[in-house]
Design a protein that fits this description.
MutS, DNA mismatch repair protein, domain I; Nucleotidyltransferase, domain 5; Rossmann fold; 27 strands
Length: 874
């Protein structure tokens, strides 16, 4: 707050403003003054910039001068989203009493604090994704985390190490994260600075307080019924979220009916690198396509949101996976059933968010009618699912509630086409309240009454152009053109003189005006009361309708999977408890979806097990499709374990519990980490978390450093995975180090494959087919040519390559291979290509260091090279 805002010599209004602002120093305070929301001081400067509205000054030139920016109160729905999306907390301060009822300054108070993680406005929210608020509690070894979408009532908690918490944050994508005040540096070290955060007092993050907040909210004696009683850190985080809601004036939380534990053991482990590298829900590059984009066939916002969770949290239980896959299979086979479900789902809006609005008392009459009409589709969907042979769809059918009583209540009490909101037109249906009907008759009959009065007075006075009108200053009045004003009766009272007319009132007109305006005020009051009572009664259905929303979301995802499977020719995977991955003619779903009409994706087989073919070394030219093959294998496995059909001719898949990827360049130079450092961090995470059912994808490991270092590291990593005693993780290892092909002769479960190419003259045709055997060429110059490198550069590169291969390649490659083979035969994991204590090498090293290249002539350079050659015995 600026010094001006604290100036004691302020008006009573500004004194009131400063007192309220002091309680919310980090929020923009929208201060209601009459028909406007005003901002002052630094808030006004920020608000004017974000909203593009005029910045003025109050008391210009005086000691109490202060910046000012405001907008009409009815524009709040337009301006509030812009402020929140710009990353601001916004405190809405309203008038708490009618200004007409007090002679003193109007009482004001903050009625709502809107933050990026707590918002109900449809203009702020994206219907296609959740708006999660997260809380983190930092423990000594384990950290607790909780996620709440206040607009849907979905509430989750979990605890785990830093890596697990980071993975969950990436999967849930919270809009705001809260944590302890004294942990700011730790948060930034672990999770970076890209998230919108808010810090709370340390005392909020205690076990007793967390348990008290949760049991108090759910009105239970313990948390055993939710299965979280042993998650101490998770309970602390969840309690902090409920406390934060209270602090932001959100105390109507009837739609938060349960809290769910995120059970790590139930879902495939996808670390944050894998979620990013495979582009599951977020593209690496702007405009890129994700797996979510390709397999999303949902029709409802709930299905849309649930699918994202299914993608980042695939199942590990074969029975549960099979239930989903069998449901999809049934829908694939039964076109009529799929079409019927699709038709009904297309008519369903956001049940979750609408019923949450009922719970918090924020639903508008039109929205209530929309919700009622949506619920009319529950019975048809229930009936449709009952005709399926799938156990899962049968279960959904039995659990979907028709919600007949809710529909009946809305039908009975709300007009068929009500006003958008209270006070903007009729809302309550006729026949609900007798006095309301009478008052409406008076108000609605006013037009006919006034027309009759106008006709009667016109005949009586002989003024043909007489008209009755209304304005806010005089109310109802009679208007007479100047040409007829001599005919006006004496008892009429003149109220206004215009250029060409006079305006009058009569006792009868004023009496009727009082009657009509009184009726309208009473109508507004009765409608508001009846509507509020109805919404309170409907809140009893929140739990039932929330369950329907979740069931519909599941049905939507399954039906969407079936639609996509039919459209893209996906196959039903065979999921079992073996350790085999056997994919026949697998395809990359995202790349395939972006091919031009007429183009076909080249499919490939992949077979991995833990007994004979645990690790596949894949060599081949750049751009030949090595990375695509790695990614498609992981995507096929993940799609199957989330319950979808897969892009393959067939797929027999043993359950995978962890998927690790080191795929593609992912520089983090902005935070001071090189490509190689990032690569090593990600690879370390893999090697430290291996399991017997892991699927590991390694792409070009070691390319961020020198060739020999890279080969050494790549070899050591592959050997470690092969020899790891506790787990034989199935691995696809794409590399441009052809020397690694030697590993197949040393390690029984390592096999060489390559992505084949066809050489036609000097041209290379990428066949994109995986075949057995290693590759000796990288075709880097050919790729440079494809990239549009200038022809002179290409020609020079080809000449240099020819000379290098002629002079050095045969002997050098053989030498490297000999060392690699020797290292492979050694039990020592450390590989060494040079004996650094060799006196000859040390002598050469000393000579090279002493040379000043800048002063060396070409003849001297040749002589020096000859000296070095003699040292080697050449």
């Amino acid at each position: 707050m600026s010094k001006k805002e604290k100036d004691p010599a302020e008006t009573p209004l500004m004194k009131q403003y400063n007192q309220i602002k002091a309680k919310h120093p980090q929020a923009l305070l929208l201060f209601r003054v009459g028909d406007f929301y005003e901002t002052f001081g630094e808030d006004a400067v920020t608000t004017s910039k974000v909203l593009g509205i005029v910045l003025t000054k109050r008391g210009a030139g005086s000691p109490s001068e202060i910046e000012l920016a405001g907008f009409p109160h009815h524009s709040l729905e337009s301006y509030l989203p812009k402020l929140v999306r710009a990353g601001h907390r916004v405190a809405i301060c309203d008038q708490l009493e009618d200004p007409k009822m007090t002679k003193a300054i109007v009482k004001r108070g903050v009625t709502e604090l809107v933050t990026p993680g707590i918002a109900f406005s449809d203009k702020i929210l994206d219907g296609h994704q959740n708006n999660f608020l997260a809380a983190i509690h930092f423990g000594k070894e384990l950290h607790g985390i909780a996620f709440l979408d206040v607009t849907t009532g979905e509430f989750f908690t979990a605890q785990g190490n830093t890596e697990y918490i980071n993975k969950l944050i990436q999967g849930f994508e919270p809009s705001e994260i809260i944590f302890q005040k004294n942990k700011n540096q730790l948060f930034q070290e672990l999770f970076g600075t890209k998230y919108y955060t808010f810090r709370l007092e340390d005392w909020v993050f205690t076990a007793d307080f967390g348990k008290e907040k949760l049991t108090g909210h759910f009105q239970t004696n313990s948390l055993k019924g939710f299965g979280i009683e042993n998650l101490e850190q998770g309970i602390v985080a969840a309690g902090a979220i409920l406390h934060y809601l209270g602090e932001t004036q959100h105390d109507k939380l009837g739609h938060i009916t349960q809290i769910q534990r995120i059970e790590e053991e139930k879902f495939v482990w996808l670390d944050r690198f894998t979620i990013r590298n495979l582009e599951l829900i977020t593209p690496l590059n702007d405009g890129g396509k994700t797996l979510f984009d390709v397999i999303n066939g949902t029709k409802t916002p709930m299905g849309d949101r649930l699918l994202k969770r299914w993608i980042v949290m695939p199942l590990k239980n074969a029975e549960q996976i099979s239930l989903r896959i069998d449901a999809v299979a049934d829908l694939v086979q039964k076109h009529a059933l799929r079409a019927e479900i699709d038709h009904e789902l297309s008519e369903i809006g956001d049940i979750e968010r609408l019923i949450s609005k009922v719970a918090v008392g924020r639903i508008h009459p039109k929205e209530l009618r929309v919700l009622s009409r949506i619920l009319e589709h529950m019975s048809p969907l229930r009936d449709a699912c009952s005709h399926s042979e799938s156990d899962l769809l049968q279960q959904l059918s039995k659990r979907i509630e028709p919600c007949e009583e809710f529909i009946l209540q809305v039908e009975k009490h709300i007009q068929t086409d009500p006003a958008v909101m209270l006070g903007k037109g009729p809302v309550i249906a006729s026949g609900v309240h007798s006095e309301l009907d009478e008052l409406r008759a008076i108000a609605d009959g006013g037009k006919e009454y006034l027309e009759a009065m106008q006709e009667r007075e016109s005949e009586k006075t002989g003024i043909p152009s007489l008209k009755i009108a209304f304005n806010n200053v005089f109310g109802y009045y009679l208007e007479v053109r100047n040409t007829h004003k001599d005919k006006v009766p004496e008892e009429w009272i003149r109220k206004q003189t215009l250029v060409s007319a006079e305006r009058y009132i009569t006792p009868e007109l004023k009496e009727y005006e009082t009657k009509i305006l009184g009726a309208e005020d009473k109508i507004a009051s009765i409608e508001a009361q009846l509507y509020q009572e109805l919404v309170q009664r409907l809140a009893a259905f929140v739990g039932e309708i929330q369950r329907n929303a979740y069931l519909i979301a599941q049905l939507d995802c399954l039906n969407g999977f079936a639609e996509i499977a039919v459209k893209n020719n996906y196959a039903k995977p065979n999921i079992n408890d073996s350790f085999v991955i056997d994919i026949k003619n697998g395809r990359h779903p995202v790349i395939e979806g972006q091919l031009k009409p007429g183009e076909n994706y080249v499919p490939n087989d992949v077979y991995l097990d833990k007994e004979k073919q645990q690790i596949i070394m894949i060599t081949g030219p750049n751009m030949s499709g090595k990375s695509a093959l790695l990614r498609q294998t992981a995507l096929i496995v993940l799609m199957a374990q989330m319950g979808s059909f897969v892009p393959a001719e067939s797929a027999i898949l043993g359950i995978v519990d962890k998927v690790f990827t080191r795929v593609g360049a992912s520089d983090n130079i902005s935070s001071g980490e090189s490509t190689f450092m990032v690569e090593m961090n990600e690879t370390s995470s893999i090697l430290n978390n291996l399991s017997d059912r892991s699927l590991i994808l390694l792409d070009e490991i070691g390319r961020g450093t020198s060739t020999y270092d890279g080969i050494s590291i790549a070899w050591a990593i592959a050997e470690y995975i092969h020899e790891f005693p506790q787990a034989k993780g199935k691995t696809l290892f794409a590399t441009h180090y052809h020397e690694l092909n030697e590993m197949a002769s040393q390690f029984p479960r390592i096999h060489n494959y390559n992505i084949s190419v066809k050489e036609v003259g000097q041209k290379i045709i990428f066949l994109r087919k995986l075949v057995e055997g290693g590759s000796e060429h990288s075709f880097g110059i050919h790729v440079a040519k494809l990239a549009g490198m200038p022809s002179k550069v290409i020609q020079r590169a080809e000449l240099m390559l020819e000379q290098l291969e002629l002079n050095h390649r045969s002997s050098e490659i053989q030498s490297v291979k000999d060392v690699v083979i020797q290292a492979g035969n050694s039990s020592d994991m450390q590989l060494s290509f040079f004996q650094l204590n060799d006196p000859v090498l040390e002598q050469i090293h000393d000579q090279l260091v002493s040379i000043d290249i800048n002063t060396l002539t070409p003849v001297e350079a040749l002589m020096k090279l000859n000296e070095i050659k003699k040292l080697t015995g050449g």
